Amino acid sequence: MIKDNFTIKKIQEGLKCKDFSAVELAKKYLKVIEEKDKDIHAFLEVSENMALKQAQEVDEKIAKQEKLTLLAGVPCSVKDAIMVEGLKCTAGSKMLKNYKAVYSATSVKKIVEQGALILGKTNLDEFAMGSSTEHSAFGPTKNPWDLTRVPGGTSGGSVASVSAGENIFSLGSDTGGSIRQPASFCGVVGLKPTYGAVSRYGLIAHGSSLEQIGAIANNVEDCQTVFNTIKGKDEKDATSVALSFPTTNLPTGRQVAGRTTNYKIGIPREYFGEGLDEEVKESVLKAVKGLEEQGCQVKEVSLPHAVYALACYYIISTSEASANLARYDGVRYGHRAKSQKQKANSLLEDYIADRSEGFGSEVKRRIILGTFCLSSGYYDAYYQKAQKVRELIKQDFALAFEKVDLLITPTSPFCAFKLGEKLDDPLQMYLADIYTVSINLAGLPALSMPCGLNKEKLPIGLQIIGPHFTENKIFDLAKKTEITLEK
């Protein structure tokens, strides 16, 4: 019998005991998508044939009494900016609406090798630019907790699919909070790994020095299992790092004044000031108090350059985006303007017609901003200065981690907002990422997890930040404060 509230471990146990088959499990979740997704719109493409074929392969291995792999029979989804061979990869854009991936991302290959069942590709803000998944060329995704609200972005489709019970986990990408912020809005767990911990090969580029592929799941243990599957060096990604990540938890005890205690946790004062919703603040500090009662030491720290992080991030990310998206000209590949009447005889005007029609408003806004920041006469004043501020932000974190093991902050200053509420005010939309962008600038790992509900019964997210390559410390602390939210 197939029950709800599955975890990876429960699926593995059920398959071993032959309570159900992988094919039955795949069909169950495909049925859930059919029933729920017409309202949520988390998926852009459902890959039924692929999932059933993968499930059949798992069942055949079980019949041969082969050892189950780490993700055998586990239904999942993949953000539609990450390549899955044979499936469309649109990046949520009209520019790539008919593009079909000819290869799979390294992270996708790894989960498939471990037996995961890919149910489909999920919606996102166009080219991973946005904070609400309202900037998709194929329509917005809705928050499963309240269909009148956004799920967050840019990995809103991935997060919503997990939150709605349409699959067990999803792969997303995080450039400035794109996994963590929607995870906060939808009450799930989302990890942005250390820069270099997971291969970016097969991820459509937006901000190459900032973005990472990460895991989204309903609980910390599942998120950790997926991370352990996709981590590691990849010869196809020069930024990936060959480090050993133990699959077991790191030891957490330390001797202080003759007694064993737990982590030293830092609370950055800059993250608890003006603009933070009071209910969010209370919920996060309540979770911190709970950790303190378990033996963790808590102290206030300072990240003095955090105030400049958002401005710094949008200069660097838009500059990188303008360079990365220059390839979409409609000639080599990408959208071609529909009507020849719109197109002039010159190559430049062809480019203008293709890009004007193929890109949405937010992407155009960021390309223009980035091109300006990189232009002659402004490069030093904007881009170069932003890179210097980025170094100061990195130093702030390095100094903080000399005093504490991990940091805890809110993930977002507020809970999920209404659909359309911030669309006409880009600056207000950008503020949704004010607590997440600095982590990407510094290349650090960070995890968002639910820590409570506000009065409107909307999830509140807590963020745990660690030094480089300390994902397992983050997972360990997260397990100490993990709660389950009831819709």
TrEMBL record:
UniProt keyword annotations, A-Z: ATP-binding, Ligase, Nucleotide-binding, Protein biosynthesis, Transferase
Enzyme superclass (EC): ligase
A Pfam family this chain is assigned to: Amidase
Domain of life, per lineage: Bacteria
The keyword Protein biosynthesis belongs to this UniProt entry's keyword annotation: yes
Active site residues according to the UniProt entry: K79 (charge relay system), S178 (acyl-ester intermediate)
A Gene Ontology term for the protein's cellular component: glutamyl-tRNA(Gln) amidotransferase complex
One GO molecular-function entry: transferase activity
Catalytic reaction(s) noted: L-glutamyl-tRNA(Gln) + L-glutamine + ATP + H2O = L-glutaminyl-tRNA(Gln) + L-glutamate + ADP + phosphate + H(+)
EC number: 6.3.5.7
Residues annotated as domain Amidase: 24-474
GO BP, sorted A to Z: translation
Subunit structure: Heterotrimer of A, B and C subunits.
Role, per record: Allows the formation of correctly charged Gln-tRNA(Gln) through the transamidation of misacylated Glu-tRNA(Gln) in organisms which lack glutaminyl-tRNA synthetase. The reaction takes place in the presence of glutamine and ATP through an activated gamma-phospho-Glu-tRNA(Gln).
Family: Belongs to the amidase family. GatA subfamily.
Protein name: Glutamyl-tRNA(Gln) amidotransferase subunit A
